[in-house]
Every structure is written in structure tokens, then in C-alpha cells.
Amino acid sequence: MGEIIHPIDRIVGRNVRMMRALRGMSQTALGQQVGVTFQQIQKYEKGTNRVSASMLFEIAKVLDADVKSFFVEALPSSDDQHFAVPVAETFGTKLDLQIMQKLFEVRDARVKRQILELLDAIIDGQRDPAGEDRGSSASHPDYVG
User: Fold this and answer.
1) pTM of the predicted model, to two decimals?
2) Domain residue ranges in the chain
3) I want to staple 28 with a disulfide (CB 3.0 to 4.6 A). Which of 7, 8, 38, 47 is the partner?
4) CA 112, 117, 118, 124 torsion: positive or negative?
């Protein structure tokens, strides 16, 4: 009988997979950069093998991520909203993932601020004057899709 996978190992692995995918990196490429096989990366991502602290540090460097970001969903909710939102709700669809991949390709901080302002305007436009969400843009009368 196999070992039971600890929930934290599963969360860390899922977040490694999500961050690797967001950066458009293969398991092979990540493995080469941290000195392990792609099979080992698969095992980390499934949670079947635990990621050591030193390996997690190396993975974080390669993925340009904060080590604590691998523990999203494992951390208690705090004032920091980044950790209050489960990863599954944040990156729920393939389209969400594609959008995030493109955002990671933008290097100019000024352009990133403009994108953020645009997204804020779009989100504000989805609310009626009472501040309620009007639903998807496809159901909006001005939608030209």
C-alpha cells in the first residue's frame, strides 16, 4: 500500500505546476535548471515526492517566485488578499492561464501599470451604479462579440 500524500505536499506540487505553466516552461526545462529529471518534477507536482526546502528554493529562483507563494491555500487567510484567494479560483480556466502567461511576458513596468489600469476600468464597467456585478460581458447589451 502506498504512502498517503500530505495535503501540504499536494498544494506545493500543484503550485509548482501552476507557476511553471504560467511561465510556459516544460517539466524537462525546469528539471534541467534545478538538476533533476522531468520525472522528478512530475513527482513533485503530483505531491508523491516531497520537495526539500533547498529544492523549493531552487525552483522558486528559476520560476522567479517567492517561496511562500508555493504555499497558497495552505496558509491561513490574512490581511494579504493574495493568500486569501484559493489558486483554483484564481486560475480556473485555460483562458485565465493564457492571459497570465502573456502578462508574464510584459517586461516594461509602465506598460504593466497601464494594463492594471485597463483591467480596473473593465472591472468597474461590469458593475452597475449600485456597485453590483452585472454578469459576463456577453450578456451586456453593449457587448459586440
Assistant:
1) 0.57
2) 1-92, 93-129
3) 38
4) positive
